[in-house]
């Protein structure tokens, strides 16, 4: 529900604040005083279009702020989807700069008009006389019938099943497309997988083969070099190893008595022993190296295969080839298992569809059961509002395929006059007729379904006397279950107020401009205001007495 509306620097409003409460709030005032301007300001925080020309002072920005209690609206998921901070107390602010730039905020977080419009439609049903109403919306018509039938659980079940069915169908479409694609690609894919399988790749293989190829290609030179180095180090009287051994023997007795020399000797001995090991390893390496043209040819062929695969798949290592092989194998496996997955998902889809049709049939039965009684009640209440010949019929048309709301398309058909053709509400009802129809419809479902704050602007236009009195009673009944705000010129409707606000014009102290002001009326002020609506300003004594009687009837 809306708790407060604050408007600054908008149209002829310099600044005003309205504090709302539960029940029925009535707004009255002279024609042109600014009642509809207040609603214009409200529409801006509901996502309406802005215009810098509407600024009261075109050198300052316009700020409109609404405070709402949304604890009962179940909006946490919406706030999470929009990445907005949630709190049971919601503040929506709209700012319009002199340049015409508009900004919107939800709980001080910047947002866009689309979010405001979505949020606003949940919070406020702003009904102005010639607006297209919810009553024209087929989804709302279905929601209304379901509420009257008390089948919220069935509706929730149907929606879940429908969502699941749609997901199954989308997945089946994807799988069937994949299967068709697989049939086109499978032969080539199998060729690639087989090529990799025949290659029998191993991690680290390439580096080993390239090293082996190097040794085989240089086998003669390696043998000659290692043999020559070994001979130079170890053989003959002048072998390096023997010479180092002789030096070591001479150092031993001298090093025994000198720590520094002992350290140098140890280092020398370490090098000598390491050199002997190197000589031995060189000898072994040379002996193991063989001249083998056949093996060299095998290595070259294997490396050429690896290089060819790498070039084909635009990679540089065997490890990357193995990754590609695994991916191709997985894809081929998926293709070969598509039939099984399609068969399994088709069975799940058929099961879901069967449950959906059963739930949809139950919804249809519940809707068709309450529809005649609802139409009759609408006609009876409209007759009380001087529309004696009005008719409303709920038309059901079976859908070829289950829809998001059920198995039927539903349309409210309406005729305002005797013998009139039943048509869609939008085509058949005038503004005043649509207003009364909307009021009657919403009053009938007030207890059964959740509605946002209902704001009616001139809903009683063109009615007076007993009809206005009955309309006031309907508004009172509606306000027992929902917050209702009504802008009216009808004294009969105004007398029903739980809170009565009066909008009026007043010259500023500098007398340079006229501004709109608003005040909440006390009991005596209410009676006087209603008396003025009944007669003139100042009101007659009889009008004041009549106003007291009207207010007393509503107590």
Describe the structure.
With 555 residues, the chain is an alpha/beta fold. It contains 18 helices and 15 strands. It has helices at residues 35-45, 76-81, 113-123, 138-149, 152-199, 205-217, 219-234, 240-255, 259-288, 293-312, 318-336, 338-384, 425-428, 431-445, 465-479, 491-494, 523-534, 541-554; strands at 2-10, 13-19, 24-29, 62-69, 89-96, 102-106, 109-111, 124-128, 391-403, 406-415, 423-424, 453-457, 484-487, 499-507, 514-520. The strands form three sheets. It has a six-stranded antiparallel sheet, with helices on one face. Strand 5 and strand 6 form a beta hairpin. Helix 4 (138-149) packs across helix 12 (338-384), helix 5 crosses helix 11 (318-336) and helix 5 packs antiparallel against helix 12. The chain is elongated, with a radius of gyration of 45 Å. The model has no long low-confidence stretch (mean pLDDT 85).
In short, what is this structure?
By secondary structure, the protein is of the alpha/beta class. The chain contains 18 helices and 15 strands.
Q: Which key features would you list for this structure?
A:
alpha/beta, elongated, 6-stranded mixed sheet, 555 residues
The pLDDT mean sits at 85
Report helical residue fraction: 55-70%
Per the principal axes of the C-alpha atoms, what is the gross shape?
elongated
Number of helices: 18
Overall number of strands: 15
Chain-wise SSE layout:
Elements lengths: L1 E9 L2 E7 L4 E6 L5 H11 L16 E8 L6 H6 L7 E8 L5 E5 L2 E3 L1 H11 E5 L9 H12 L2 H48 L5 H13 L1 H16 L5 H16 L3 H30 L4 H20 L5 H19 L1 H47 L6 E13 L2 E10 L7 E2 H4 L2 H15 L7 E5 L7 H15 L4 E4 L3 H4 L4 E9 L6 E7 L2 H12 L6 H14 L1
Parallel strand pairs: 3-13, 3-14, 8-12, 12-13
Antiparallel strand pairs: 1-2, 1-4, 4-5, 5-6, 6-7, 9-10, 10-11, 14-15
Helix pairs in contact: 4-12, 5-11, 5-12, 6-10, 7-9, 8-9, 12-14, 14-15, 17-18
